[in-house]
Design a protein that fits this description.
The complex is a heterodimer of chains A (332) and B (438). By secondary structure, chain A is α+β, with helices and mostly antiparallel strands. In chain A, 41% of the residues lie in helices and 20% in strands. In chain A, the strands form 3 sheets. In chain A, strands 8, 9, 10, 11, 12 and 13 form a 6-stranded antiparallel beta sheet that branches. In chain A, strands 4-7-5-6 form a 4-stranded antiparallel beta sheet. The longest helix of chain A has 17 residues, at 19-35. Chain A is globular. Chain B is an alpha/beta fold and 438 residues long. Chain B contains 14 helices and 14 strands. Chain B has helices spanning 24-32, 52-64, 67-70, 80-93, 111-123, 138-146, 163-175, 199-211, 235-238, 266-280, 285-297, 300-325, 351-360, 390-414, and strands at 38-39, 106-109, 129-134, 150-157, 160-161, 180-185, 215-219, 243-248, 260-263, 331-332, 340-344, 363-364, 366-367, 380-384. Chain B has an 8-stranded mixed beta sheet with strand order 2-9-8-7-6-3-4-5, sandwiched between helices. Chain B has a 4-stranded antiparallel beta sheet with strand order 10-11-14-13. In chain B, strand 7 (215-219), helix 9 and strand 8 form a beta-alpha-beta unit. In chain B, helix 12 packs parallel to helix 14. Chains A and B meet through helix 1, helix 7, helix 9, helix 10 and strand 11 of A and helix 1, helix 13 and helix 14 of B.
């Protein structure tokens, strides 16, 4: 694709809890693409989107939507129906990766380490009795525990529980964001994120980013307020550990069938062993987000990288709709 | 190997910057701006009810004919023309020449917000105490926090500020070796509580403040927006000494002009002007001309009636919807004017923790924590009725009631655990929307 005359549409905003983050991601990637000479526009995913796509289809779409719309596969499915190519994995894959318990099951089946977990909708607690279920969780997984919404991002609704008495509050806080909670064994260690990009030569790991929140918790404020977290790029890991982390991240990306770009969040335990926490199919692109840091550390340019990913996406035009329809069982 | 915090200025910020962090509640308000969401969260007046064509024509005239003046710098105190109009408007509230209201003692400000900031600059040293109703206006909390003052809340009931609570707060502040500089109060159709200080209590509050050497900062943005008869006389109409009267055209005309004012004791007036010039040089000449011309040439009293009628219908819809739809045990105030109803949830429900669920249900409100400087107020929420049409208000309450029902069901399963432990303490403004949210 000759990038100078290409027209790329960036979707940002949406109705998820991460709308604000998404708008920031969208503006960041808009600037980066334009600086790379790509003709790019930014718009919300609203009722005017589909008529606009029909009237003036872009060469490809960059999905900077976070939360359900951007990551649960539904919008990607609609774009497939419209025959508009987009950067990133297809609809069924996004749906799988977005649901953390489902993604963890795939990772587990593929021998990729991920903390032991249980996923429970809030209805189950009312049916079986919250005290009995919570007691069993603590007995089985031990303390501390990590509680987070089965679907969601930006640390919203997530809490580390070190005391069993704090577990009910963590569950209530989690259920404010999702009807299903993922409770997993908390693995102490070093938080790292590995961004994966595939510009045609297979999935490549970018340098791992190590995350050190100053108050110990990588919550919403620590993620999006410059000055509250120290990020080390590349992560301060022994070379052998760094290699293992990168290989594990690529294995997770591959096992889930991801495409173009993703970010794998891991924890490296005291023995240097990586454990995959979750995988993001629409990684944050804000000023404090992890993927742009990794891109910079790799000596790449964010706009040029996405221009290449757009080029790959555009080359898939015509095949995306067919593949998705077949996978979803949608009849013509 | 060193890391980055992406902020090279961390060790150079002033102390008052502490707490200025990203807020997940503030982020949720980003969704509330979408049309799918019924927003009961903002504080926006219904400016669509203004005679927009006539206002537009007036603005064009001010530019094309009076441009050499309206597009120029002005004086720090504000134009005499506007200050005279301000005195005319205040007369409607009972603050007239008989109680010493003179254009000479009016300082025009950039909204009421700058007036509050000027008062804080003139009177507050770090560590000073400001007494204020609990809850109170979030923008005032931000000003007092920036002045590094401590806000001590004084309890209210359905008749407004409780005089005995004020006396106790003054005594407790004194016993702690602290100095309370002034009482900040919104006595009429209070934001956010919607209650009005009764006639009897107004005199009591003034007496208590006078006896204790406490200045009074009276914030009165809503006093002319009463639906059930006239509001009691403002504090400033009852006493001229020691009372600073702050108001704005944001609710009676349009917030887009950002024009407010302060009526101050004569001795303070010059200091306010000097402080204002240091901040902004002068208020916008164009905005002042627009407001002055509107109040000189257009039927503003009729327009006030229009606003009152629209808001009365919307308030009635909100109150009847709450009565019809909210779960038993929920309580709310019944404002005689203004823009807001203050609701209190039952069974220890936490309005801040409930916000994500509300956003999922496509309804927005402001959690009560935004209106307290001390981190309390979790069981409360502020509901706005000025902006949304009655059918949208009812739909919003329907969604809100459903959210509360779900939250009650969840609490019945898990008990009523406190969700506050371990939370990052945030500035009050972080729990309230920006001024642009309708």
């Amino acid at each position: 694709m000759g990038t100078s005359d290409a027209r790329v549409l960036i979707l940002a905003g949406g109705l998820s809890y991460e709308r604000d983050v998404s708008l920031r991601s969208g503006r960041r990637i808009l600037d980066a693409l334009r600086a790379a000479g790509v003709q790019a526009e930014l718009r919300d995913a609203d009722v005017a989107l589909l008529p606009a796509l029909e009237a003036d289809p872009p060469e490809a779409i960059v999905i900077a939507l976070h939360g359900a719309t951007g990551e649960d596969g539904s919008l990607r499915g609609v774009l497939d129906l419209c025959g508009v190519p987009y950067v990133g994995c297809d609809a069924p894959t996004a749906r799988l990766a977005w649901d953390k318990p489902s993604a963890k099951a795939v990772l587990h089946e593929n021998g990729i380490p991920t903390p032991e977990w249980v996923a429970l909708p809030h209805d189950r607690f009312s049916e079986l009795g919250a005290v009995a279920v919570l007691d069993r969780i603590v007995d089985r997984l031990g303390l501390p525990l990590m509680v987070k919404p089965a679907q969601g991002g930006s640390g919203l609704g997530a809490a580390v529980v070190r005391d069993a008495a704090a577990l009910p509050a963590a569950m209530v806080g989690c259920f404010a964001y999702d009807s299903t909670a993922l409770v997993e064994r908390y693995v102490p260690g070093v938080d790292v994120a590995v961004s994966i990009v595939d510009t045609g030569a297979g999935p490549e790991p970018l340098p791992a980013v190590e995350i050190v929140p100053h108050n110990g918790v990588y919550d919403y404020a620590a993620r999006y307020t410059a000055g509250l977290t120290t990020w080390h790029v590349p992560a301060r890991l022994e070379p052998s550990v760094a290699k293992s982390v990168a290989e594990t991240a690529v294995a997770a990306h591959t096992a889930l069938g991801l495409r173009d770009i993703s970010r794998v969040d891991l924890i490296v335990d005291e023995d240097g062993a990586p454990h995959v926490l979750e995988v993001n199919v629409s990684p944050g692109l804000t000023e404090t987000s992890l993927l742009p840091m990794a891109v910079q550390a790799a000596g790449l340019d964010l706009g040029q990288l996405f221009a290449r990913l757009v080029e790959r996406a555009a080359a898939r035009v015509g095949t995306a709709a067919r593949v998705s329809r077949e996978t979803d069982g949608v009849s013509r | 190997m060193s890391g980055t915090t992406l902020d090279d200025y961390t060790d150079r910020y002033a102390q008052r910057v502490a707490g200025m962090t990203a807020s997940e509640i503030r982020a949720l308000f980003a969704v509330a701006s979408r049309p799918e969401v019924v927003s009961l969260a903002g504080g926006a007046p219904f400016v669509a009810a203004l005679p927009l064509d006539a206002v537009g024509e007036m603005l064009g005239h001010l530019g094309s004919v009076h441009g050499p003046t309206t597009l120029q710098y002005g004086i720090g105190q504000g134009t005499l023309d506007l200050r005279e109009r301000i005195c005319e408007v205040m007369t409607l509230s009972g603050i007239d020449v008989a109680c010493g209201a003179s254009p000479d003692d009016v300082v025009v400000t950039v909204g009421g917000q700058q007036a509050l900031d000027l008062v804080a600059r003139l009177f507050l040293d770090p560590g000073d105490v400001v007494l204020a109703e609990g809850p109170t206006y979030v923008g005032a909390l931000g000003v007092f926090q920036a002045a590094q003052a401590q806000v001590v809340h004084v309890a209210m009931d359905d008749q407004g500020l409780v005089p005995e609570a004020l006396t106790e707060a003054i005594a407790a502040t004194r016993a702690a070796g602290r100095r309370a500089k002034f009482l900040y109060t919104i006595p009429t159709y209070q934001n956010p509580a919607g209650v009005t200080l009764t006639d009897e209590r107004r005199d009591q509050v003034l007496d208590i403040c006078e006896r204790n050497g406490l200045l009074v900062v009276e914030d009165d943005p809503y006093g002319q927006l009463g639906f059930d008869g006239d509001a009691p006389l403002p504090l400033r109409a009852r006493r001229r000494d020691g009372v600073f009267y702050v108001s704005t055209f944001s609710k009676t005309f349009a917030p887009g002009f950002r024009v407010g004012w302060i009526l101050a004791p004569h001795a303070v007036r010059d200091k306010l002007v000097i402080a204002s010039e240091a901040q902004i040089l002068c208020p916008s000449a164009f905005a002042q001309a627009a407001v002055a011309t509107y109040f000189a040439t257009m039927p503003w009293r009729e327009q006030l009636k229009t606003f009152r009628e629209i808001y009365r219908e919307r308030r009635d819809t909100l109150l009847s919807s709450l009565a019809d739809l909210m779960p038993a045990g929920t309580r709310w105030t019944r404002p005689g004017g203004g823009l807001f109803v203050w609701a209190t949830l039952t069974d220890g429900l936490d309005a801040k923790a409930m916000m994500p669920r509300a956003i999922s249900a496509r309804v927005a409100y402001v959690p009560g924590t935004g209106f307290y400087a001390d981190g309390t107020g979790h069981e409360h929420l502020r509901l706005n009725f000025s902006f949304s049409a009655p059918d949208r208000i009812r739909e919003g309450v329907r969604r809100l009631a459903s959210v509360v029902e779900e939250e009650l069901a969840l609490r019945s399963v898990f008990g009523a655990p406190s969700l506050r432990r371990g939370r990052r303490r945030v500035r009050p403004g972080a729990d309230a929307p920006g001024p642009d949210l309708a």
